[in-house]
Design goal:
The structure holds three protein chains of three kinds. Chain A folds into three domains: 30 residues, no CATH class; 233 residues, no CATH class; 57 residues, no CATH class. By secondary structure, chain A is mostly helical. Chain B is mainly alpha-helical. Chain B has one domain: ABC transporter involved in vitamin B12 uptake, BtuC. Chain B is 72% helix and 3% strand. In chain B, a hairpin with a 2-residue loop joins β1 and β2. The longest helix of chain B is centred in the first third of the chain and has 31 residues. The model of chain B has no long low-confidence stretch (mean pLDDT 90). Chain C folds into two domains: 197 residues, Response regulator (Rossmann fold, 3-Layer(aba) Sandwich), CATH 3.40.50; 159 residues, Response regulator (Rossmann fold, 3-Layer(aba) Sandwich), CATH 3.40.50. Chain C is an alpha/beta fold. In chain C, α2 packs across α12, α3 packs parallel to α4 and α8 packs across α9. The N terminus of chain C is likely disordered. Classes of the chains: A mainly alpha, B mainly alpha, C alpha/beta. Chains in contact: A-B, A-C, B-C.
């Protein structure tokens, strides 16, 4: 039942924009005619890519990377530099984003993946922060190499129906990410990664080349994230350290994967959709208005953030296996489920 | 030469704040295996308490530090007992996210109460200091360093010489065994987190004097706590003290690189942290977990 | 809750979204859109911006609205919180245009958000008038739909240099400290090229990380070169840190001038007596003497601010420049005699009017290079305008006495 509904929703979301924009706009048909919808949907698709990509190294392999946003930024700047400085066309520059990101991941991953648990997480966070700083500040011949603090301005992409184009491009990237995850989970490579997650020493003993597998997973994760970054750079037209290396994207990707269900194919995507919709809803950007009584207009944004924080706390405590648990029919969202979750993880 | 000495002094003095920030963070991480992303928020809550007492009651800021410690201890105990204890047995990632959520709530509650204005505590003697020729040792940072060292000593004393401290050590060594010998885990965990929060509160009081505070001003300190603890090493309070001082020195010397060099201070600090993790994960002084 | 019920819930949500296609504004109201960082790191400055917009809003609606061809149109400003995140600002901009049918846009706070939003305004061909993003890089992109009423970044400290050139004994050496963000670097680079034209040398140029709270090393470097003038290009947080460190480390200079920070009441509140003698380059002060073509005079504006926001002191220039953005838009709409975006855009490009804030006129790139910056100094805990002479209400207290002689 859910699958049917999900398929209908997905079909609506994907095919609706193909209806002629002008006709839809004059008829004022909701969603179809909506540039805002494209923007939000593109962002959701972008997070689907990032969360799914993180899942490969974090959920499947069990190495919780905390600095994946570095690859987003590297991808964005690779494409950005090629377009802005070398004047390459967008579609030619784009494939280099995942390539460079993957290359960097392989380089950095070799030493980093020797660490475990907390140490790996913190080290990857450090790399994430350091890369962002370097990109913003490196000079060459007295001038900032990557555009520096003023960022890089790309030319506005000359195409009709720009919103539509980038929406489909990002959805394509999301599809690729999910397809790659699906393939990984069914392949020998994926079994090796899961083995590493469950018991790395045993996996090594059984003949899994853990170093190669881990670095490959890391590079794959980086490539997908970098692809999202590359698309972002041309879509947003302007990139700088703040919007391509934002530290809280790290947390968001992980949260989405967790919320949806790590280690699964569709979990991170579901989590991305839910969390982003929630963030956009609380931020007031969805075309639904709501009024909270007793709260002044000034306090509303603050309250929205508090609600987000509390929700996050609630989810982590009560739904640790992710929402996807409910969709497979394995569990039902009930009070006893919540109580069980609590007992499993609390002291 | 005098310049070099001055820089070393400035580095050590800056290190005082980092020591205070780091010991609480390191305690919670080392013993409870919790990476508290809300640590910066706890620090800033301490800052606001000091600021409020200074502004309304005109209390000397150093005298408000015990108030910070007690208030934050209570808050930390309640948080751990009520909220964080619920996910202790979950994978480590969950504590990252839980504390991130708490951080978000704390910052916005502060925003609601105090607004976004920048505030600072400037006592009458701020700016004055000891002078030895061209080398200056300002009073406020000097006393702050002293407070931080004292704080660390007190923490070490509690951990090594008191009953609850020994219980905490037992938990750090083997949680289930500790429970088997009758230690009340829930209480001990809460006390540990409370101690960590108390240290954060004191750090906050010190920070209120050295810079301007606003609800989001604690964020950088969480990140810096990471570096301090890694540099020094998990496992012992003295290790974190060394880490904090080392970080202060690294920061000051990185920022002295002529021209634009100092913009890389953050990159250098984090790069150093990654280097330490990869080559010597136990840090300068710590024990490997 | 079973899967079935959950699915029904999802369907209902989609239906709700589909049907709730936003409020359509009545024909007679003009809707303006403004995404601001009402939470997050830019809360303080965004709040000031909002105050400026609201002051104008009250006044224009009290008189019935903006007059277009003899018809009065009341004004509504729709605010959104972008949590100080530039990417979120873009989403909200799009919502303002698509859902809320904002006819014109008021700028966000900060150069990063302004840059992103300018691209969106350009793509949608809706004029955006902003007052809080001074980085010239935004205006060098050839955008036709973004206009900035404030003086560009490079002017921020040039006024201080101009003033210094008139003082005696004339200072000649400058230590320039700068944060590494877009805006601050533009301010600092401008000084590098401007100072020699007035017979002064920059003997130290040190950049530091934006938002740094420990600047003792930078202050030490400035002390080592013993410059006459110490300039900082950064924001409030860093200005406070530098001033504290200067006192602690006994950095003395004849002039301490910070680009942003000293003009806000927070600076004086945070530092007490240590704030005295500090100069800053300001877009506007309550002492300037401009004769407005319309809207309130300077003194009436200050009074209106104090009436609406009591207990905060005088309006900061962030408030004033935001009001000026609204005034520019209003006058352009009146001049165009129409609400058509292209006509209003052209009217903005041709605008030349003086209000309480100063002259508003845009160069071919869209930024206001015609309004001069003024220089303020804090004397005995109170702001005074000290330069240029025709708007000054006090003499500069020069040179700044050494710390141990105050």
């Amino acid at each position: 039942m859910f699958l049917i509904l999900g398929a209908i929703l997905a079909a609506y979301a994907l095919l609706a924009p193909l209806t002629s924009l002008d006709a839809a706009q004059s008829a004022n048909v909701p969603l179809l005619a909506d540039r805002l919808w494209f923007r939000i949907a593109t962002i959701i698709a972008m997070f689907i890519v990032m969360a799914t990509a993180w899942n490969i190294i974090g959920g499947i392999t069990g190495y919780a990377a905390f600095g994946n946003v570095a690859f987003f930024g590297i991808g964005a700047y690779t494409t950005g530099m090629l377009i802005a400085k070398a004047k390459w066309p967008f579609l030619v520059a784009l494939p280099f984003a995942p390539l460079v990101s993957a290359g960097f991941a392989a380089l950095v991953g070799l030493p980093l993946l020797r660490l475990r648990g907390h140490y790996f997480a913190v080290a990857s966070l450090g790399v994430g922060v350091a890369v962002g700083e370097l990109v913003q500040n490196i000079d060459y011949g007295g001038q900032p190499l990557f555009g520096g603090a003023s960022g890089l301005f790309l030319p506005i992409y000359a195409i009709d129906n720009r919103g539509l184009f980038f929406f489909y491009l990002m959805v394509a990237a999301a599809t690729i990410a999910i397809a790659v995850t699906w393939w990984v989970l069914r392949s020998r490579f994926g079994y090796g990664l899961i083995a590493i997650r469950e018991n790395e020493e045993a996996a090594a003993v059984l003949g899994v080349n853990t170093t190669v597998y881990k670095v490959a997973a890391f590079a794959l994760s980086a490539a997908l994230t970098g692809l999202a970054g590359g698309i972002f750079s041309q879509w947003n037209v302007f990139i700088n350290q703040d919007n391509t290396f934002p530290i809280d994207y790290n947390v968001q990707m992980i949260l989405m994967a967790l919320l949806g269900g790590t280690g699964t194919v569709f979990g991170p995507a579901v989590g991305a959709v839910l969390l982003q919709l929630l963030i956009q809803f609380l931020g007031g950007s969805l075309p639904i208005s709501f009024d909270i009584p007793f709260v002044s207009a000034d306090a509303r944004p603050i309250l929205a953030q508090v609600i987000l924080g509390l929700l996050l706390v609630g989810v982590v405590i009560f739904v640790p296996r992710g929402v996807i648990d409910f969709f497979g029919g394995r569990s039902r969202l009930s009070l006893s489920y919540l109580r069980r979750s609590l007992r499993e993880t609390s002291l | 030469m005098a310049d070099f000495v001055q820089l070393v002094i400035l580095g050590l003095l800056a290190g005082g704040v980092y020591v205070a920030v780091g010991v609480g963070f390191g305690l919670v991480w080392g013993v409870l295996n919790i990476v508290n992303l809300a640590h910066g928020a706890l620090v800033i809550i301490g800052s606001y308490i000091t600021w409020q007492l200074f502004t309304t009651l005109h209390l000397d800021p150093f005298l408000t530090l015990p108030v910070d410690a007690v208030a934050l201890f209570v808050l930390g105990y309640a948080l751990q007992r009520g909220v964080i204890n619920r996910i202790i047995r979950a994978p480590l990632l969950f504590t990252f996210l839980l504390t991130f959520g708490l951080n978000l709530v704390a910052i916005n509650v502060l925003l609601f109460i105090f607004g976004s204005d920048f505030r600072s505590v400037t006592p009458a003697y701020s700016g004055q200091g000891l002078e030895f020729g061209s080398v200056v040792i300002p009073y406020v940072p000097l006393i702050s360093l002293g407070v931080a060292i004292l704080l660390s000593a007190a923490l070490a004393f509690i951990l090594n010489r008191t009953r609850i401290g020994l219980a905490i050590n037992a938990i750090a060594a083997d949680r289930d065994a500790a429970q088997l010998v009758g230690i009340d885990l829930r209480h001990a965990y809460a006390v540990t987190f409370g101690l960590g929060a108390a240290c954060a509160g004191v750090a906050g009081g010190l920070i209120a004097m050295s810079q301007a505070i606003t609800p989001t001003a604690g964020e950088p300190y969480t990140l810096q706590a990471f570096v301090v603890v890694i540099l020094g090493g998990l496992g012992r309070v003295s290790a974190t003290v060394v880490g904090g001082l080392a970080f202060g020195l690294v920061e000051v010397f990185a920022q002295s690189i002529p021209g634009s060099g100092s913009v890389f201070a953050n990159a250098i600090a984090f790069g150093l942290m990654v280097l330490v993790l990869v080559t010597r994960p136990q840090g300068l002084l710590g024990r490997l977990r | 809750m079973t899967v079935r019920k959950l699915a029904l819930l999802a369907a209902a949500a989609v239906a709700a979204v589909a049907c709730g296609s936003g409020t359509s504004t009545g024909q007679t109201t003009i809707t303006l859109g403004a995404p601001l960082g009402l939470t997050g790191s830019l809360t303080k400055e965004s709040t000031l911006t909002q105050q400026g917009y609201n002051l104008w809003l009250d006044w224009i609606n009290a008189s019935g609205g903006i007059v277009v061809n003899g018809v009065k149109h009341p004004v509504v400003i729709k605010y959104y919180d972008d949590t100080s995140n530039a990417n979120q600002s873009a989403v909200l901009m799009q919502k303002l245009i698509t859902e809320d049918k904002a006819q014109f846009l008021l700028g966000p706070y900060g150069s990063a958000a302004t840059a992103t939003d300018a691209a969106i305004a350009e793509q949608n061909q809706i004029p955006m008038v902003e007052a809080n993003g001074a980085a010239q890089s935004i205006f060098n992109q050839g955008y036709k739909y973004t206009f900035g009423v404030l003086s560009p970044a490079n002017k921020y400290l040039e006024g201080v240099i101009d003033m210094a050139a008139t003082l005696s004994p004339k200072p000649t050496t400058i230590a320039m400290l700068s944060a590494d963000d877009n805006f601050s670097i533009e301010v600092a680079d401008a000084i590098n090229s401007y100072a020699p034209t007035k017979g002064m040398r920059v003997v130290l140029y040190k950049k530091y990380k934006n938002g740094a709270t420990n600047l003792s090393a930078e202050v030490q470097a400035a002390k080592a070169v013993n410059a006459d003038i110490v300039l900082n290009s950064g924001h409030l947080q860093e200005a406070i840190a530098i001033n504290k460190a200067a006192k602690e480390q006994k950095l003395n200079a004849k002039i301490f001038a910070y680009s942003v920070g000293p003009s806000t009441p927070d600076f004086i509140a945070a530092l007490g007596n240590d704030a005295n003698y500090v100069y800053d380059g300001s877009q506007w002060t309550p002492q300037v003497k401009y004769t407005p073509a319309f809207y309130l005079t300077v003194s009436d504006y200050v009074a209106a601010y104090k009436a609406k926001y009591p207990g905060l002191g005088d309006p900061d220039y962030h408030v004033a420049e935001s009001t000026a953005a609204c005034l520019a838009l209003q006058r352009a709409i009146e001049n165009a005699g129409s609400l058509d975006p292209k006509k209003v855009r052209d009217a903005l490009a041709a605008l030349d009017v003086t209000v309480f804030f100063g002259q508003i006129k845009f160069d071919s790139r869209g930024i206001n290079i015609y309004k001069p910056m003024v220089v303020e100094q804090i004397q005995a805990g109170v702001h005074h305008t000290v330069f240029p002479a025709d708007v000054a209400d006090a003499q500069a207290k020069y040179p700044t006495p050494a710390w141990d002689q105050r």
